[in-house]
Amino acid sequence: DQQVKQNSPSLSVQEGRISILNCDYTNSMFDYFLWYKKYPAEGPTFLISISSIKDKNEDGRFTVFLNKSAKHLSLHIVPSQPGDSAVYFCAAGESTNSKLTFGKGITLSVRP
Amino acid sequence: NAGVMQNPRHLVRRRGQEARLRCSPMKGHSHVYWYRQLPEEGLKFMVYLQKENIIDESGMPKERFSAEFPKEGPSILRIQQVVRGDSAAYFCASSPIRGPDTQYFGPGTRLTVL
């Protein structure tokens, strides 16, 4: 049973445009959400997070939106750059414990 | 400040052998987590340890897998009598406090079982 779903396996965007990566979850106990970026042969690198008391968090070119009623979050990258090309994982957790539940990831390709 | 270190980076074992994966957390971090990534899948939680204690092992297979985080030295994930299905990338993360929001990941160990 997949509790965190990233339904699109890949996304290709033009440099300078917006990238929107989506993520859905089913467990209503999740109250903390994170996005990780991963390059081949490396570990995941933390990108941005949001807790359930907020609906938006922004850090430079990266913004995460959370819609609790729809159990949906999205990561916006604007403007997209070729160096953003990587696999992006959505993850969720509960503040009462420490384990993270990951989606399968989405491969973002930013075309020059 | 060195990040989370894992070794070996690549490990090849034959079926039936033992695999030992090591994780040195970031300096000052006393919480360690192990995750496994199968091909074409996301990372799956295996176990959470604090120094000398297993806090949550709800993601560990019931047999052949064990983990420890001794008072001195790295955390060890041990897989006995490996099978082909154990082939995966194993990632360790560490954090200074308990919680889902402060985990820093190592580069992973890629285990191949022949």
Tally the helices of chain A: what do you get?
0
The first-to-last residue Cα distance of chain A is 38 Å
- Cα separation of the termini of chain B: 37 Å
The ordered string of helix (H) and strand (E) elements of chain B is: EEEEEEEEEEE
Mean pLDDT score of chain B, rounded? Answer: 93
Beta-strand share of residues of chain A:
over 45%
How would you describe the shape of chain A?
Answer: globular
Largest sheet of chain A: 6 strands, mixed
| Sheet having the most strands of chain B | 7 strands, mixed
Backbone structural class of chain B: mainly beta
- Helix percent of chain B reads under 10%
The H/E string of chain A reads EEEEEEEEEEE
Number of strands of chain A: 11
Most extensive interface between two protein chains, with residue counts: A-B, 28 and 30 residues
Put simply, the count of helices of chain B is: 0
Average predicted local confidence, pLDDT of chain A: 94
What does this structure look like?
The complex is a heterodimer of chains A (112) and B (114). In chain A, 0% of the residues lie in helices and 54% in strands. Chain A is an all-beta fold and 112 residues long. In chain B, β5 and β6 (53-56) form a beta hairpin. Chain B has 114 residues and is mainly β. The radius of gyration of chain B is 13 Å and the shape is globular. Chain B is built from no helices and eleven strands. Chain B has strands spanning 5-7, 10-13, 19-24, 31-37, 43-50, 53-56, 65-68, 75-79, 88-95, 104-105, 109-113. The chains are: A mainly beta (112), B mainly beta (114).
Summarize the SSE layout with pairings.
The complex is a heterodimer of chains A (112) and B (114).
Chain A: E1 4-5, E2 10-14, E3 19-25, E4 32-38, E5 45-51, E6 56-59, E7 62-67, E8 72-77, E9 86-93, E10 100-102, E11 106-111
Parallel strand pairs in A: 2-11
Antiparallel strand pairs in A: 1-3, 3-8, 4-5, 4-9, 6-7, 7-8, 9-10, 9-11
Chain B: E1 5-7, E2 10-13, E3 19-24, E4 31-37, E5 43-50, E6 53-56, E7 65-68, E8 75-79, E9 88-95, E10 104-105, E11 109-113
Parallel strand pairs in B: 2-11
Antiparallel strand pairs in B: 1-3, 3-8, 4-5, 4-9, 5-6, 7-8, 9-10, 9-11
